[in-house]
What we know:
Layout (H helix, E strand, L loop, with lengths): L7 E6 L2 H8 L9 E4 L6 E4 L1 H5 L8 H10 L3 E4 L2 H15 L6 E5 L2 E5 L8 H16 L3 E6 L2 H11 L6 E3 L6 H5 L12 H9 L5 H6 L2 H7 L2 H11 L15 E12 L2 H21 L2 E12 L10 E12 L2 H15 L6 E9 L2 E2 L14 H18 L40
Parallel strand pairs: 2-4, 7-8
Antiparallel strand pairs: 1-6, 1-7, 2-3, 5-6, 9-12, 10-11, 10-12, 10-13
Amino acid sequence: MLYSKNKIALVDCNSFYVSCERLFNPSIVKKPVVVLSGNDGCVISRSTEAKTLGIKMGEPYFKVERIVKENDVKIFSTNFALYGDISRRVMKTLKQFSPQMEIYSIDEAFLDLTSVKNENLLEHGHEIRKTILKWTGIPTSIGIATTKTLSKAANYIAKKEKSGVIDLINSKQIDKLLSEIKINDVWGVGRQLTKFYIRNGINTAYDLKKIHNGWIKKNTNVFGSRTAMELKGFSCISLEPHEEKRKSCCVSRSFGRKVTKLEELKESITTHCLNAAEKIRNDNQTVKKITVFIKTSPFQIGKKYYANSKDIDLPIRTNDSITLIKYSLIILENIYKEGYQYQKTGIIFSKLKDVNIYNKNLFSTINNEEKRTKLMKAIDYTNIKYGRHALSVAQAGFKKKWNTRRRFSSRIDTACFDLLPFVKTS
C-alpha cells in the first residue's frame, strides 16, 4: 500500500440548520439559537452561543427549557424544505471548484483537489469558503488532507479556528493536531469501539495512529483497521463522486398528538406515500415491494403497547402514486386494531429499480400507463412550481390534526412566495 498523494477537502457547513434560519432572520445572528427535531423533541442543531450555555446535542427540549428561558435562546422547529433547498445551493456552488465531488450529507461534501498545487491549497480553501458565504450566505469549515479520515480530522480542528480552514498536507504539526482530537470524535469510531480503545489506553486520534496495524486487525475489524491506516496517511476509503441510487425509500413521522381513528391513520399513510412516490420518481425509479408499519408509544403508562407491520409484493412495478396509495391502505386496514393510541406510522418502498428496466407488458394498455405517467409528471411539475402538496389527493386530508408538532416553525419556504420574508424599504 502506497502513501496517499490525494488532496481531499471536506467542506462542512457550520451549525447548518441554525445557519439556514439565520439566513432569513438577521436579528438572531450572534444570538444563542437551537433547532429541534420532529415534534420539537430534541436539540439537533446549536449555534456556538448555545453550545457555550451548555446545551448539548440530542438533549430533550424539556431538559434545556430552563436554560432557554433564562438566556433568551431562540428556538426553531425543523424546516427540512428550507434546509434541503439551501443544501442544493451550497452543493451546486461547490461543483464550481471540483467536478469530482462526493456529497456526504445534507451539509457535508468531499472535494478532490488533486489538480491544485500544494503551495496553493490553503489559499484555495479560503477561496472556497469565501465564495460559499458570498453566494449562499452559509459559513463553512474546510479540512484538507491526503485521506478522507484525515480531512475529517482537519475539519474538526478547522471548526475551532477563526480562519475556518486547516491544511494538513503542508502541516508539520499533524501529530500535535491529532493529539487534540478525542478518540470518540474520530470519523468511523463508534460508541462501543470508543469504550474498547479507552480501556486499552487509546484516547486520541494520535494514539490510534501510533498503534500497530496488526493489533488493530486482531482486536477490531476491517473498518477499525481502515480508520487507523487512513490516519497514518494511507488512502483506504475512495472518493465516490457518482451517487448510487437508493435501494429503498422510507418515509415516517411521529404524530403531534396520539391518533386512534383509522381515518386519520389513512391520511398519514397517504401523505407518506405521496412523499415517497415523488422521491422515487425524481430518481426515475419504480417500486416492487411496499411495507407499512404502525406503532403506539412504548412509554405510555397504563396503556398496552402495539406495533405491527406488513408488506406486499406488487404484481407490476410502478411509481404511480394512486396505485401505491391503494395497496398501502389495504395493508394498513389489515394491521390496524381499535382501542390503541397510535404514535407513529411509516411506509417503506423496497426492491427499487430504474424505470427503464421495467418493460411494457400485457396490462400496460389496460391500465392506461402512458396517461398515468403524464399525470404524475404534471403533478410533480405543479408541486415543484407552486410548493409541495399544491396538488394532492383527497385521501391525504386537509386539516391533518395528526401532523407533526412544530410550535416554533419559522414558516420560511423558498418554494412559496407567500411564505418568503418581507424586506422593508424606506
